[in-house]
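Final report, results section. Input specification for complex C-07:
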Amino acid sequence: MSAKRDARDAPGAAALSIRGLRARYGTVTVLRDVDLEVGAGQVVALLGANGAGKTTLMRTAAGVVSAAAGTVHVNGADVTRLAPNQRARRSLCLIPEGRGIFRNLTVEENLRINTPPWVKPVSFDSAYQAFPILAERRKQIAGTLSGGQQQMLALTRAWLSQASVVLVDEASMGLAPVMVDVIFEALHALAARGVSLLLVEQYVKRALAMADTVYLMKKGVVTRAGDPATLEESDLAAEYLSHGTVAAGNARGEPGTGPGTGTGQGAGQG
Ligand code: ATP
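Structure output:
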């Protein structure tokens, strides 16, 4: 797959450009004037405490949640008023938190569903190359796969959709360390293909290691944006500690077992 850009794309435009974005659930505002940009071919890490609004930001960018104000541009095109499937058509792909797969269907049936109707010819080769185990399990019912394999299956949408901008929400959530390695390898592979990535990750160190830019969010507001190399440990800790979610010594590291890491992952599952 190549990270194809639409013929209507503006040359030199950011892959994803979010300006003044606001979102609400009912009367409660959870995103406030958020600006965020993912440059073409860049990796951006979006970090913040539980409830900061990271998932809502991704859902609003993808059109699953309507923007109350602000704009979303994908490869230079204004998609703010477009439905989720129309944004997907414009090369935006959301891999939601919680493995959005059909558990009662086989691996191959899920791959068919993960392939948008406009992608022709239909081939699952790219998904099987990214995750060879799925080729071996192609006839298996998805719900009987391990947690890591289910996450791989969810991630295949990024390959099968041929999207140029992929939003990945907590892909490593609850997985055993060996599976986390596989998922990060896959994310690196996507980035190496020129796909622009926005990552929400509990494995903060790993996300920062591959990110060109990091954004910190707190209570629906972006509080800091910049080069991960210049991010102070204290900045990061402050974002988490303000909500009492991650112990200071753990803020930059792997998800811990301290109170309120919010991952509920325990030892993880494979
Ligand atoms: P987490 O790491 O826990 O997923 P997050 O940073 O992704 O947190 P969101 O899930 O975007 O945060 O939640 C932002 C706020 O919106 C929280 O206060 C949350 O309780 C609230 N919220 C999220 N989803 C809904 C919903 N469907 N209806 C009402 N409120 C919601």
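The pocket of adenosine-5'-triphosphate is lined by residues 25, 30, 48, 50-56, 262 (CB under 6 Å). The longest strand covers residues 28-38. This concludes the modelling results for the funded period.
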